[in-house]
Design a protein that fits this description.
The complex is a heterodimer of chains A (315) and B (248). Chain A is of the alpha/beta class. Helices cover 37% and strands 29% of the residues of chain A. Chain A has helices at 40-47, 69-75, 91-101, 109-119, 135-147, 165-178, 191-197, 215-222, 236-244, 275-285, 299-314, and strands at residues 2-11, 14-24, 29-33, 55-60, 63-64, 76-79, 153-157, 183-188, 200-205, 208-214, 225-232, 249-254, 262-269, 289-295. Chain A has a six-stranded mixed sheet, with helices on both faces. In chain A, strands 2-1-4-5 form a four-stranded antiparallel sheet, covered by helices on one side. In chain A, strands 12-13-11-14 form a four-stranded antiparallel sheet, with helices on one face. In chain A, a hairpin with a 7-residue loop joins strand 12 (249-254) and strand 13. The longest helix of chain A has 16 residues, at 299-314. Chain B is mainly α and 248 residues long. Chain B has one domain. Helices cover 86% and strands 0% of the residues of chain B. Chain B has helices at 2-17, 20-56, 66-90, 92-100, 102-107, 113-145, 150-177, 181-204, 207-216, 218-227, 232-247. The chains are: A alpha/beta (315), B mainly alpha (248). Bound molecules: adenosine-5'-diphosphate and magnesium ion. Adenosine-5'-diphosphate (ADP) binds next to helix 1 of chain A.
Chain lengths: 315, 248
Amino acid sequence: MIDVQQVSRYFGDIAAVKDVSFQVEKGEIVGFLGPNAAGKTTTMRILTTYLPASSGTAKVAGFDVHEESMQVRKRIGYLPENPPLYQDMRVCDYLDFVAKIKGVDPNDRKKAVQEAMGKVAIDNVSKRVIRHLSKGYKQRVGIAQALVHNPDVLILDEPTIGLDPNQIIEVRELIKSLAGNHTIILSTHTLPEVSMTCERVIIINKGKVVAKDTTEGLTQKHSGARRLTVVVDAPLEDVRKKISALEGVEKVEKAGNGAEYTTLFVDSSKSLDIRPQLAKLIVAQNWPLYEIKAEDVSLEDVFLQLTTNEEGEAS
Amino acid sequence: MKNFLAIFQRETKSYFSSPIAYVVIGLFLVLAGIFYYLIISNFVQMCMRVDMMAQQYRQMPQKMNVNLMAIRPIMHNLSLFALFFLPLVTMRLYSDEKRTGTIELLMTSPVSNWQAIMGKFAAAGALFVLMLAGTFIYIIFIFLYGNPELGPILTGYLGLLLIGLSYISFGLFFSTLTESQIIAAVSTFVFILVFWAIGWISGIVSPTLGNLLSNFSLIEHFDDFAKGVLDTKHIVYYLSFIFMGLFL
Ligand SMILES: Nc1ncnc2c1ncn2[C@@H]1O[C@H](COP(=O)(O)OP(=O)(O)O)[C@@H](O)[C@H]1O
Ligand SMILES: [Mg+2]
């Protein structure tokens, strides 16, 4: 449905996006994850024909974004980072206008507007002027705007940015409910969003794609190590030295400050569960034990790992 | 065509759902009214003086031409007021879309740039037509109390319409360049003023250059319209000016 090949975009000398390639299949919901200024918005603007790419090709629904931009525009719904709302219009008039310029058949327009409002649950404010709506409602109107012509592809740029926690959950639920009928690509700089809403994730940093995988796949692949948290009441250096000496232990580091007891992260190779050995050691040393806990390597760690690796390379 | 209409309607509604349209039309008419009053009362005084002089010397009173003496200056005034007001009408057309981000909706919808531009141009043009229509009232009064020729009035209005559309096309152009409405309005204003002033400069510099320059002057071309002369040369000038503004 979306096919991006080696797309780059320069602003002056700066490459906002560099050699980005990825594909999205029909019906998929894909997260586009990256820190600020990674190039997410720029990529989305290229996909939506708003910005031309400096090089490379991108196709949406089989049409080239540059050569056949009008065909692409008919098939996409786009929610920019700032919802594109005419503040002085009423919600229903605004959506009617959007339906018109998106080429919805005049006979179906009323129904299309009603349906879009229904999907994002804004029927109750349809006669209100957009300016007077809360931020969460404005965001919904923005999503309704992207939906009104029932496009094949939905492109949502940071759909939950600036919302309060309840609204964030609502919008995420909303997006999930849209999956299936549309191919969705959404960008975000927060991880929970991706793990909660997306099947697949594309991580981008400094204009380059650094990873593409399913959400689980990515966590597994990059959790090369097992991590345990150990809390004991004993001198730090002593504990560190003795645990490091255990077979299979790769790294021991102090976790946080100010804790009453010594708290350590113990990384070991994946193949070996060191917990029995560790328990034996602690008992033998007679250290008062407070906790041994296995940590899942979170997407957050993977994300940090990937984006900081990249920084190391660049410098 | 559908897209053009959609955008035209939206812009027109937006003018009238905010105070812009009412303020601009209202103040334009007030200003036009004041100057109309001054010009007419001046004209009436002059007529009376001429009458008195004629009586003194026992001659037939000289006939004063209301078209030349009153309507022409009124037309000139209107073209000047349009210069002040139209940049205010056009400044938001694109700047505001850029500032609020709605431009991203417009530019990612299956609407060609041309359709969008023409829709906005037509909306501002329609507002200007309303402004001009308001001034008909003043002209009607002249018809009630005098007997001006209709021809020069019609060409005068055609000239006003063309000069106004030229302002609008450049106002639209400057509005696409910036997110700031103020900058858009001021640069439109300065730009148009320069084109006005070219006519005066042309008097100072050498005759050939002067001739060339005055060809570019917005107001020189208007003069004939106001006099009642309909010349295709002038119409072509304004149309090319309008298209230049729209294409840029
Ligand atoms: N119009 C522009 N002009 C100049 N630089 C830009 C422009 N748009 C984006 N950039 C630069 O491109 C980089 C990527 O920006 P963006 O795509 O907005 O990132 P993200 O959406 O991931 O935060 C940034 O360094 C930004 O400063
Ligand atoms: Mg962004």
